[in-house]
Amino acid sequence: MAHQQKHTILTLVLGVIACTVANITWAKRYPDDPFAWQHKPMDAKEIGTTAGQMQFSVLGTTVISSSNDDPYLGGKMGSDYMLNEYGALRFYVAQDLFEPNGGSIEHRFTSFRFGSSWHLNPYRAVDIGSFIDAGVLVVDFIKGKSGDKAPEVTLGGFMMYHIDSALFIRAEMERAWCNVEIDGIDTKQHRTALSLGLGMAF
After folding, report:
1. How many Å apart are CA 18 and CA 11, to the nearest integer?
2. How far apart are CA 79 and CA 128, in angstroms?
3. Residue 70 and residue 129: Cα distance in Å, rounded?
4. 32-44 burial by CB neighbour count: b if 16+ within 10 A, else e?
5. Beta strands in the chain, from DSSP E residues, in sequence order
6. How far apart are CA 8 and CA 4, in angstroms?
7. pLDDT at residue 122, as a whole number
8. What is the C-alpha separation between 41 and 60, in angstroms, rounded?
9. Which are the contacts of 155, defined by CB distance < 8 A and separation ≥ 6?
């Protein structure tokens, strides 16, 4: 009886060893799966607003001003630094250019603004939020004529569409308030601006 048990155990052990060796040998001979690439998980792709991100934007602007009868065109550029996924510090420069029909503007304003922004939909392709800026408006800065200055406050909202992890489209709508003295006359400069342009995130 004991002899039969020993024989049975030996047979099982040899069978396990034989199966293991056969599997290893077969695995080495088995060809690579030609469709393995179809089963790989997709690479992670960062898109949207994230903490620590630097966003640089260049925007074209249409401005409606209380001091000008017709809307005119301008430009705006600046950057936002994301303190976290929701809050950012921003610095922008806005410049009046010319009227759409080619007409000139009597006085062109340059604004240097610093403020903060709030992002409501981080880590998504579409992000929306609001911002508030304070700064200085300079009259005819690029012409070097008067150099009159005054404080300015701006409140607005934005929408961003992230094309990929680096490139995005940005649209803004803002309202700016400023009382500035031009040629000795105190003038209200209340302006509404619509902006659209491209940006890069780093």
Report:
1. 10
2. 16
3. 29
4. eeeeeeeeeeeee
5. 54-65, 72-82, 87-98, 109-119, 126-139, 149-162, 167-177, 179-182, 185-188, 191-201
6. 6
7. 92
8. 40
9. 130, 131, 132, 133, 174, 175
Distance between CA atoms of residues 17 and 121, nearest Å: 59
Burial group, residue 109, by CB count within 10 angstroms (0-12, 13-18, 19+): buried
Tokens coding 95: 């410049």
**Is 199:172 a contact under the CB 8 Å cutoff?**
no
Residue with tokens 């601006």: 193
Q: What dotted CATH number matches 54-201?
A: 2.40.160.20
Q: Encoding tokens for residue 81?
A: 């630094």
pLDDT at 142: 78
According to the model, what pLDDT value does residue 107 have? 81
Domain ranges of the chain: 2-39, 54-201
Angle among Cα 69, 71, 72 to the nearest 5 degrees reads 115
As a whole number of angstroms, the distance between CA 162 and CA 132 comes to: 22
User: What is the distance between the alpha carbons of residues 92 and 193, in angstroms, rounded to a whole number?
Assistant: 14
Assess contact for 197 and 161: CB atoms under 8 A.
Answer: no
Rg of the chain, C-alpha, whole Å: 33
Residue that is written with structure tokens 């489209």 in the block = 169
Mean pLDDT by 10 residues, the chain (202 residues): 55 59 53 63 72 95 85 94 95 90 79 96 94 93 76 97 94 94 78 96 92
What is the identity of the amino acid at 84? N
